[in-house]
Amino acid sequence: MVTNATISDSSIPQLGVGLQFNPEIYDWFPFARHQVDAYEVLLDAVMAPLDGRVVMVPGGAEQLESLAKLAPLVAHSNYGCDFGFDPLEETPAVRRHVPIARRIASPWVSNHCFYADGSWSDIWSSPLQFSRAEVERVGRRARALSELYGTPLAHENAAYYVACPGSEMREAEFLAALVDRAGTHLHLDLHNVYTNSVNHPGFDAWEYLATIPLDRVIAIHLAGGSYHDGVYHDWHDSPVPEPVWEMLQHVLEHTRVGAVFLEFQGRGHHDATRVLDRERDLDMILADLARARRTWDAAYGQRSRRTTRSGAQPIEAREVCGGR
Ligand SMILES: [Fe+2]
Question: What's the pTM?
Answer without folding.
Answer: 0.91
